[in-house]
Amino acid sequence: MKITNPATGAVIANVAADNAAAVRRKYEVARAGQDRWAKVPIRKRLDAMAGFRDRIVAMQETLARTLTHEVGKPIRQSRNELNGLLGRIDFFVAESLRALREEKIYSDPKLEERITHEPLGVIANISAWNYPYFVGSNVFVPALVAGNAVLYKPSEFATLTGLHIAEMLHEAGIPRDVFVPVVGDGATGAALTRQPVDGVFFTGSYATGAKIAASAGRRMIKVQLELGGKDPVYVCEDADVQAAAAGIADGAFYNTGQSCCSVERIYVHESIHDAFVAAFVAEVKGFRMGDPMDEATYIGAITRRPHLDVLKKQVADARKKGAKLLLGGSVVRGKGNWFEPTVFTDVDHSMALMKDESFGPIIGIEAVADDEAAVDLMNDTEYGLTAAVYTPDAKRARKILAKVRAGSVYWNCCDRVSPRLPWSGVGHSGIGLTLSTYGIQTFTRPKAWHLRGA
Ligand code: NAD
Predict the structure, then answer these.
(1) pLDDT category of residue 140 using cuts at 50, 70 and 90
(2) Is the pTM value of this prediction over 0.90?
(3) Alpha-carbon separation of residue 397 from 150, 157, 388 (angstroms)
(4) Is 269 in a helix, a strand, or coil?
(5) Per-residue confidence (pLDDT) for residue 453, from 0 to 100
(6) Ligand 1 pocket: which residues have CB below 6 Å?
(7) Would strands 433-434 and 423-424 be described as parallel, antiparallel, or unpaired?
(8) pLDDT over 70 for what percent of the chain?
C-alpha cells in the first residue's frame, strides 16, 4: 500500500497490507492472547499504559512530524493532538480502577448481589484518519486496561501513525498477541469485521458505519459507531460578536474543517448578521494556508484527494441555489490536495452545504429571526453530534440547548472534547460512546452475581 503526503502528492512510504488470510491469522493470534491478558492484574495493565505515555513524550516530535506528513495536518495542530492524547491517557489511568472494580450492590444476611466488569474478549477497533491518536486511543486504551485483546486497524490514510502506536504499546509491555495492528483499506476493514470478534468499535463515516452495523447485527455482538456530524452553532443577538466570530471561525476551520465536531453550519440572529459576518470573514482571512510543516500554517491539506470533488459539488450547488460566496470557493491548483477557506451567506436548507457533512474548510452562515427558528434549523439534520449557542444569558442558553438533539452541547464554546465527559452521537452520528467512566465500562460486560449463602 502506498502512503502519500496529501500536501505534496509525493509517495512517502510503501507498507505491506493484510489480505483476508492474514487478517484471519491475526484474529487467531489475538484470541489466543486475550485469556492470558485478562488474568494479568489490572495494576500491571495500567503500568503498561503509563509506559506507553512515557514513550509518546519521548517521541513526541517524531510522531507529530509523521502525522503531519501523512494526513497534511499543520504541525502545531499535530503537536496539540499529541498533548491532548497525554491528557486522555492520564484520565483513563486515574479512573479505571474505580470504574472497573467489583461492586457490592446489595446485601442482607441471606443474600448478596454483586456486579463484576468482565472484558468483552477480542475486539476490532477500526479507526479514522482525522484525529488518529484521539479516536484510536479512546478505544484501545480503556479496552486494553479492561482486559480485552484489540485488533486495531488504523485508517489507510494514517497507517504510519498506527504503526507507531503499535510499536510504542509493544515496547511498553502490551504483548504482541494482545494489541495487533491490521494494515489496509476498506477491504481489510471488511475482512476484519467478518472475524468472530466480540465487539466492533468503529470511528468513521455514516456510510461505512451503516455497513458495519448491518454485518455485526446478525451476530449479536457489541457495536459502537462514532460517525459524522453537521454541527450547528447559533449566535444570539446579545452575544459578544467579536469573541463569537473568533471562537466559531476556529471551530469551523481548525484541522482544516476535517473534524467530526467541526462547526458545519452557523445561524445568526438577523439583527447582528452583518456585523457577525464582517467579523467572521476578517478572522478567516487571517488564517494562513500553506506548508503543513511551517509553524505559522493554520489551514493544511485535504487528506483524501477524492474529497476535493465533494467540496467542489457543495460549492457549485450552493451557488446555483443563490448563496453568496464571500471567500474562497475553489480547489488550489498545483501539487497536493488543497481547498481555499470558503465562506457563504444567503444559504438555506435546500443546499447540500447546510445538510450534508462537508468535512472541509467551507461554511455557510444563515440569518434567523428568533430562538425557535434557530432550534428548528439546528435540528433539521440526520446527524446529532454537537451543537453550540453563543449568548451571555445562561438561562436562555440552557433552554435552547435542552431542545437540541445532540450528544454534546456547548455554551459559548464549540469543537471541544473532554475526556471526563461521554462522547456520543444521536441519529446518523452513531451509537454507543467513548470517554468518561462510561467509556471505560463500555469495553466490559457487567456480570450479575446473585449469592445466597447456605
Ligand atoms: P471512512 O468511513 O471512510 O473510514 C473509516 C475506517 O473504516 C477506515 O479505517 C477504513 O479503512 C474503514 N473501512 C472502510 N470501509 C469499510 C468496510 N466496508 N468495513 C470495515 N471497515 C471499513 O471514514 P474516514 O474518512 O476515515 O473518516 C471520516 C469520517 O469519520 C467523518 O464522517 C467524520 O465525521 C467521522 N469521525 C467521527 C468521529 C466521532 O467521534 N464521531 C471522530 C472522527 C471522525
Answers:
(1) very high
(2) yes
(3) 41, 39, 9
(4) strand
(5) 83
(6) 126-131, 135, 153, 155-156, 185-186, 189-190, 193, 203-205, 208, 211-212, 226-229, 260, 357, 359, 385, 423, 425, 430
(7) antiparallel
(8) 100
